[in-house]
Amino acid sequence: MSRPASRKLLIQFLTFNAVGLLNTAIDFLLFTLLIWFGTYYLLAQVIAYGAGMINSYVLNSRYTFQKDGKQSSKQHKLNRGMKFIAWNVILLGISLLLLAALTRWLGLNEIVSKAIVTVITVALNFYGSKRWVFTASKPQTESS
62-101, pLDDT tens digit by residue? Predict the structure, then answer.
């Protein structure tokens, strides 16, 4: 890998992580605030996760995975948006199941459970975002 390509990849990685930290902060802080106000923890998770998800899509689309300042086609943006939503619905489902398991079955506090779930879903989110959601679209080739 050339030096400029390595530098670009490093910047992309650092940007993705900075956005991820902000998303996690939004998610965790909003969850904590909602719990403090007496919101049922699973509803709090849906709301907080949704806020982090919106922030993630906007910032990662605009700053992390924008290809050389070129605008993506409307179709590519639609496809990326649909993959992003699908992946995050899966992650939300995983997070809800884990939260319920940790609080109901293991008897952990909601905030402690949220911290554990956050570690797991952050790792899964990075993997799926890098490998599936924000992958570059491959040009269509015509078969002969």
Answer: 888 776 556 667 888 889 889 999 999 999 999 999 999 9
> Is residue 68 in a domain?
yes
The total of structural domains in the chain comes to 1
Q: For residue 20, what are the contacts with CB-CB under 8 A and spacing of at least 6? A: 56, 122, 125, 126
51 domain-assigned:
yes
Instruction: List the one residue out of 9, 28, 10 whose CA is nearest residue 20.
Output: 28
pTM of the model: 0.74
Integer Cα distance of 85 and 132 in angstroms:
12
Closest CA to 19 of 118, 126, 113: 126
Q: Is residue 144 domain-resident? A: no
Q: What is d(CA 121, CA 127) in angstroms, rounded to the nearest whole number?
A: 10
135, two tokens: 């992958």
| Domain assignment of residue 33, yes or no | yes
Residue 12: give the domain boundaries.
Answer: 3-133
